[in-house]
From TrEMBL:
Residues 586-781 form the Lon proteolytic domain. This is endopeptidase La. Coiled coil: none annotated. Residues 1-25 are annotated as: Disordered.
Amino acid sequence: MANNPAERHEETAGEAAPLDPDRLYRAADPAGLGFETTADLEPIDGLIGQQRALDAITVGTGVPRQGFNLFAIGHTGALTRRAVESVLNDAAADRPAPSDWVYVNNFKEPHRPIAIDLPAGRAPDFRDAMRELVDELKTALPAVFQSEEYQTRRGAIDEAFQKKQAEAFSELQKRAQEHNIVVMRTPMGFALVPSRDGEPIPPPEFNALPEEQREAIQKTIAELEKDLEHIVHQIPGWDKERRDELRRVNEETAQIAIAQPIEEVRRRLADLPRVLEHVEAVRADLVENIAAFVVAGTQAEAGDSGGSSGGDSGGETLPGGPFDRYQVNVLVSQQDCDGCAPVIEELHPTLPNLTGRIEHLARQGALVTNFRLIKPGALHRANGGYLLLDARSVLTEPFSWTALKRALRSRQIVIEDPSRLVGTSSTISLDPDPIPLDLKVVLFGDRTLYYMLAAADPELSEHFKIVADFEDDFDRSAETEALLARFIASILRRESMKPMDADGVALVLEHASRVADNAGKLTLEVDQLRDLLAEADFWAQKAGRDTIARADVRKALDQWIWRSSRVRDRLQEQIIDKVSLIDTQGARVGQINGLSVMSLGGFAFGRPTRITCQVRPGAGKVIDIEREVELGGPLHSKGVLILSGFLAGRFALDAPMSLSASLVFEQSYGGVDGDSASSAELYVLLSALAELPIRQDLAVTGSVNQLGDVQAIGGVNEKIEGFFDICRERGLTGTQGVMIPASNVRHLMLRDDVVEACREGRFAVYPIARIEQGISLLTGRPAGERGPDGNFPEGSVYAAVEARLQAFADIRRSFGREGGTGQGTTS
């Protein structure tokens, strides 16, 4: 027995004693903060306590390689994002301003607009130059083509054509007259008819002529018709010559008319080769399509003395107009930046908002578009700088995550139409030039989302190689308290709130430890602190104070709890009314008060739960009723199974485990998970086995391992306060209290009323390191330790447990013998 493994690992634990009240709450010293109000403090900008994340951001922004984008995980609320944005702005100041990007018309393939990059800030100049060119040509070209010189040249061309046509017909007419034939123009064309004295002979008279004369006239007419046909066939050729000559004159006139405006644009943008290339394409297209330009310009002049057609106050024409093809669509411009890279946050990262979109206009029952209806996305606006995105928003928008990865891999922005991706649109659209992409993407998300995405999408590590893991809290010390006080001063000043006195700041610091769930830590969930400061400022305003006092902070905390605690109060009401059965006095066998935490909408509270146990002889199985009915989660089931390991390693070592036990959370109608009740389940199991009553004025929390060590759990403050509230409503007796793991003492930041009750001896918090301490406190008997003879001391809890287990084993053996002789059955 002396070499028993359980005995070798057992620790000798002293008796459980209530914690000193000073260990239940770590107060901040207002005098030690060294200021009267936050107005005396120097504000601190940026992030505090986040050196790990800052180092990651430094690497992510500094490595100029593909894939070194950032994924920021943790409690990345609005203030944290603002601080990250501030860091990125500092990094952006060291990066050159990116290029401007414009789209212009592709005169050869209009469905494929051309993207042109320009030096930062030059795109508006290009746009304005082309707009001024178009505006000038709208007036100049019609004027040139209406000038006397042009009209004279055009008239000469028309006159030459008419003269050539007239001369041909005149010669024909002369020859026809020699044979008394006249040429007549009819609705069907030209006709040759006989005449007398210059007048056509009526058909009856012609038919009355001698046959020989009629045949001679008809023969003459037939010969003349051949000449007429020859002339008529020449007319289209003469007309083509007229049109060619007119086109040549138009081109010469257009070249002269547009030469000076085009040259002005060229001089203005002489340092931009791509622009000059486009200007020459504009020149060629103007000359080629001058007729349409002149007609449209004439109509515009007739309809609008301002010289613009369909335009807005800035002289713009609506997409689809004759002048629209020469305009410039400024996609992104750095004109208003200070020579640094952009930092853009996209709050609604749909596919069009991310990669850009092509808009359409309804015209005469059809949807039309052109290059001027190309709109930029966040990738365009952030190109050359930094783009901030919420990971959950990107993942929940159709196609956005895939499009983002595709853009990062190809390093170019391709505008995609969602309707075309799913095959629901047959509208003819554009295929704009893709734009080269060079930016850093920063995704914000919680840790669970990041790790799930990393497991589900192996491409995540390809594109987001840097993880900035933000701390939830940092160590509490005089230095960090002072640092957080300065940060509080920064929030108050930035948000235009009243300054806060030192007492108020001390309470905020104490609340920061409460939020961190650790008296030795301060939370870094700065958005939650900002909300507290905003409400405290409101209450200070209501009270007419110039500074925010501790009473205002307390009022804000109490009001938040009041607003959030309806469900808690209803559950506690059920316990007080004995609808939910919880005893806070007396002692019962196989019954104990366990503690759990519920969290609803960010408000967590403790709820006592009765746990009961029944035992009988059996096959050594501890039945978890919660698991059997599928209400118990895997962690809870694990905790129950550990109980079997504890019993097997501690009791009846020379006999088979012959126990059948059932454990249940009474009046629990929802799911149960976590192992924080496993120590309570072990206590109630030992009580049922030893047939010893355990105190009902104590509630228990803590997990246990197979060796009997009580282990830390979460929500210890809420659990203690939950049982305290019930005891207070029923009347504190001075014997009530809560047993917690000794390792949770460092986490205690209890409410003032709980601490005060403990200080007055009306309530107690017991730190428990070993099951032996806990069962002794609950039963009033020592747990017992095996002596040299291998037995537990008589009268100890463990002696009673082992005796009961031995009795179960004997019963099982007796049933086995009876079953073997046919006189009974085995269980």
